[in-house]
Amino acid sequence: MRRFLLATLLCAIRLSADSYPRQPGIDAQHYIFELTLSDDTDEIVGQATVEFRFVQDGVAKVALDLTSAVDGKGMTVTEVTSAGGALEFTHQSDRLVIKPASPPHAGDLRQFTIRYHGIPANGLRIGANKYGERTFFSQNWPNLARQWLPMIDHPYDKATSEFIITAPSK
């Protein structure tokens, strides 16, 4: 009986293990999220600048979580740049994968700017409050920030952030 319980416990631990795809070659340092909100549509227009410290030489790609557009909800990435130049990227299956222009060296700091737009399926709630006034409310825990912000949406890689919001004056 004890062996059965021990085997069951070990199996449960293995099944609940964190399977998030970590990126040991990078460390997110800071995010700047610039968002434009509107009273005319639920679509947001965003620009995110992400600063990474590379902790390994030759990292070939950087991946961020960002929900892909499906059935009118989700985000569409239009451009990724770094140091003024366009970068190659793919955005599919809720992952934005960016290829640095040149292989980084350990210790390098680089910024990537992502331009995107879309209607969040979750994370950013857009609608009327109990008084009928239009509101925008973020509810990101535990993993809903990726619904509207390109980021590493996992607590293993903490970083500072700032928001710059352009919204209707009312």
Characterise the protein shown here.
By secondary structure, the protein is mainly β. The chain has a single domain (25-166), classed as tricorn interacting facor f3 domain (Immunoglobulin-like, Sandwich). Helices cover 8% and strands 44% of the residues. It is built from one helix and eleven strands, in the order αβββββββββββ. The chain has one helix at 2-15; strands at 26-36, 44-54, 62-65, 74-82, 85-86, 88-92, 95-99, 109-119, 124-128, 134-138, 160-166. The longest helix has 14 residues, at 2-15. The mean pLDDT is 92.
Outline of the structure:
The strands form three sheets. This protein has a six-stranded mixed sheet with strand order 5-4-8-2-1-11, with no helix packed on it. A three-stranded antiparallel sheet has the order 3-7-6, with no helix packed on it. The chain has one helix at 2-15; strands at residues 26-36, 44-54, 62-65, 74-82, 85-86, 88-92, 95-99, 109-119, 124-128, 134-138, 160-166.
Key attributes of the depicted protein:
single chain; 170 residues; mainly beta; Immunoglobulin-like; 3-stranded antiparallel beta sheet; 8% helix
